[in-house]
Amino acid sequence: MELDNNNHSVFLLYYHLVLIVKYRRKVFDDTMSDYAKDMFVRLGENYNISLVEWNHDIDHVHILFKAHPNTEMSKFINAYKSASSRLIKKNFPQVKKLIKIDKWFPSSKTCSCCGKVKESLSLSARTFRCDCGFVADRDWNASINIKDVFWHK
User: Fold this and answer.
1) What is the pTM of this model?
2) Which distant-in-sequence residues (6+ apart) come within 8 Å of 105 by Cβ?
3) In this structure, what CATH number is given to the domain that contains residue 22?
């Protein structure tokens, strides 16, 4: 185990940072990962941070890095997140893909459990009840249906 040192101390500080894509959207690929990794290394040099390990999946990144005790960690992470977010959106336009749901999509009338669509549902009915036995708040049921459309596109 190799320890780092400065004038008055000996230290070994490792940090594990996990960055997650907004809404856990599956947009992270090898090219984008390499771009973000290079940006991390370049920005880390200004803060006495050295990258140890970088791993990514399609919706998040694991970063293991070493830092000095006097590193302003919150400023570094803030700078990295804002710079990487801005530049990735600029250089990889597929990240900003907008998902639209048809304005007549029956989110309130569809059962989020079995998928059956009710013929009618009055606005005064605040509880959604389905023949399959599913019972939920009407708005909560609609939000699940909208989320499901988002995840499947």
Assistant:
1) 0.64
2) 145, 146, 149
3) 3.30.70.1290
Write the pLDDT tens digit of every residue in 18-67.
Answer: 999 876 778 889 999 999 999 999 999 999 999 999 999 988 999 999 99
What letter represents residue 126's amino acid?
R
Residue 83 to residues 2, 14, 37, 102, 111: CA-CA distances in angstroms? Answer: 32, 23, 12, 34, 42
* Number of compact structural domains in the chain: 2
141 with 78, same domain: the answer is no
3-class secondary structure for the chain?
A: CCCEECCCCEECCEEEEEEECHHHCCCCCHHHHHHHHHHHHHHHHCCCEEEEEEEECCCEEEEEEEECCCCCHHHHHHHHHHHHHHHHHHHCHHHHCCCCCCCCCCCCCECCCCCCECCCCCCCCCEEECCCCCEEEHHHHHHHHHHHHHHHC
State how far the alpha carbon of 81 is from the alpha carbons of 4, 90, 148, in Å: 27, 14, 28
d(CA 127, CA 138): 5
Residue 133 and residue 62 share a domain: no
Q: Give the domain extent around 136.
A: 99-153
